[in-house]
Amino acid sequence: DAVDNAPAIVVGSGYGAAVAALRLGQAGIRTLVLEMGRLWNTPGSDGKVFCSTNAPDQRSMWFRTRTEAPLASFLWLDVVNRDISRYPGVLDRVHFADMSVFVGRGVGGGSLVNGGMAVTPLRSYFAEQFPTVDAAEMYGTYFPRARAMLGVNTVDPAWFEATDWYRFSRVSRKHAQNAGLRTTFVPNVYDFGYMQREAAGTAAKSALAGEVIYGNNQGKRSLDKTYLASALGTGNVTIHTLEKVRAISRAADGTYVLTADRIDTTGNVVETKQYGCRYLFLGGGSLGTSELLVRARETGTLPALNASVGAGWGTNGNVMLGRANHLWDTVGANQSTMPVMGIDDWANTANPVFAEIAPLPTGLEHWVSLYLAITKNPQRAAFTYDAASGTVKLGWSAAQSAVSVGMAKKLFDRINAANATIYRYDLFGGAGKVFADDFTYHPLGGCVLGRATDDYGRVKGYSRLYVTDGSLVPGSIGVNPFVTITALAERTMARVLAEDTAP
Ligand code: FDA
Questions:
Q1: For residues 111 and 92, what is the distance between their CA atoms, to the nearest angstrom?
Q2: Per-residue pLDDT tens for 217-247?
Q3: Which residues are catalytic?
Q4: Do the beta carbons of residue 193 and residue 220 sit within 8 Å?
Q5: Where are the bilayer-spanning segments (predicted)?
Q6: Hey, whose CA ends up nearest to atom 1 of ligand 1?
């Protein structure tokens, strides 16, 4: 069979992958990026690249016949989800037995669908999670490098205080303060200058038009506009889309051999390709990379992978919930989709929680305060290979989610008590579920730094094989994770290019 060879291959095109592609390209190394999703640059029949959250179509979700939005219902009605046709849409929800994981699909990975919150973790917690990483170097060099490259900026505080679009945040801030809790501004990669022009009516609305989880048509500095644009600009990087890597092996001469299925927009495999490379960088995300390596170990194609591959997975303690406000506490019909504030109770050692104040942009006043809580849940799970089905399973249980709920509940019971408010029971399905603990936006771990890999992401048992994505993070980082993933990838690439690729 014809093997298409490249000096370096990067699997995926999310944060870790995009950093690898840029730094390899700048070093003059010819690099091929393989991404299972599509390139999001061509407008559909409505003139827009991405569809809106209010009227989702085939572009919204990865090969579905109905959307599966995180908020399933409103006033117990299934008003949120819509029938769609099967297509490689931008948001995927991957279902395991007791946990489902939202991930982005397309050139840019999670950066296409996420809330853009660009948070640097608390240094003490970073050091706790990564005891073998030099924190001084991370906070002095790699975090600043990541933030600059990602285009991180902050909302103008004066505009924040005055605008209708962040009334929902100010109401939640007041309620947190009434309970003696601290709030903090959260940086974002959405261009706040652009957002102010949206509000002024001088620019096309995106964050102010409900766009986020199915993609932003304007304003957001997703990876296709930052790292990946620069990577392509080096002239050394090529991206193949709609190609899913399904197997990795190593030839006798040390070449890594990848098997990839090329699909069409109906999902049919139209070609199976073989690629060879000397250097292999895995950036398929916590799920994608863990799946590839667990399968490679268990099917014997990379038998020297150690027992830590697949282990150390967590949800970053994610729980979503809503509170019902008093009638006089209106949150506003106008809500920006980009969160800019969090309730920071991480220093509370008895119950550490960082809760992002999330928007619920329906275009109508609904008196709901919505939150995505990040709790310090110590539970971890492992991926295992099911030989009968050839699939990888995740061992996370409902009891492990209950730990996150317990922590979120303690914090929000305090907030409800201080404000004489209650939870909303109608948002997460018909059973009156208050805490959405069965999905996560922040899958982390599976190939943890220093365990499945060395301290720089070099996979143990093999040379020239690297992990650069969220699977390196041991299940929890206490804040939204993409800045940490990007900074760790910068650190890996600096080391690898200095030490491993010398002629
Ligand atoms: P990432 O998941 O970004 O990229 C992996 C890529 O590899 C994908 O494009 C995938 O299609 C591709 N891939 C996987 N397997 C493959 C294979 N076998 N072959 C080919 N391609 C493959 N974080 C944050 O810091 N702030 C925030 O505000 C938010 N908000 C948020 C909202 C929503 C709705 C979601 C779903 C997620 C967030 N996140 C977030 C999380 C954040 O987006 C996430 O942590 C990062 O995207 C993870 O980056 P990685 O590099 O690990 O992989």
A1: 13
A2: 999 999 999 999 999 999 999 999 999 999 9
A3: 356, 442
A4: no
A5: none
A6: 14
Q: Cα–Cα distance between 262 and 247 in angstroms, integer?
A: 13
What are the distances in angstroms from CA 221 to CA 150, 152, 350, 396? 7, 9, 37, 33
Q: Where are the alpha helices (DSSP H) in 108-142?
A: 123-129, 135-137
Q: Which residue has the tokens 């919505």?
A: 370
Tell me the CA–centroid distance for residue 222 and ligand 1, in Å.
11
Q: How far is the CA of 104 from the centre of ligand 1 (A)?
A: 5
Evaluate whether 444 touches 476 at the Cβ level (below 8 Å).
Answer: yes
* CA distances (Å), origin 6, targets 9, 11, 65, 324, 501: 7, 13, 37, 56, 14
Residue 180, Cβ neighbours under 10 Å: how many?
Answer: 10
For ligand 1, mutation pick of 9, 35, 289 (most atoms within 8 Å of CB): 35
Ligand 1 center from residue 285 Cα (angstroms): 6
**pTM reported for the whole predicted model:** 0.98
pLDDT in tens, 36-90: 999 999 999 999 999 988 889 999 999 999 999 988 777 777 778 999 999 999 9
Helix, strand, or coil (residue 192): helix
Per DSSP, what are the bridge partners of residue 386? 391
ipTM: 0.99
Give the residue carrying structure tokens 């709609």: 242
Per-residue DSSP letters for 1-37? --EEEEEEEEE--SHHHHHHHHHHHHTT--EEEE-SS
Report how far residue 62's alpha carbon sits from residue 131's, in angstroms, rounded to the nearest whole number.
37
Q: What is the distance between the alpha carbons of residues 403 and 473, in angstroms, rounded to a whole number?
A: 20
Q: Summarize pLDDT for 307-355 with one digit per residue, the tens.
A: 999 999 999 999 999 999 999 999 999 999 999 999 999 999 999 999 9
> pLDDT at residue 2 above 60?
no
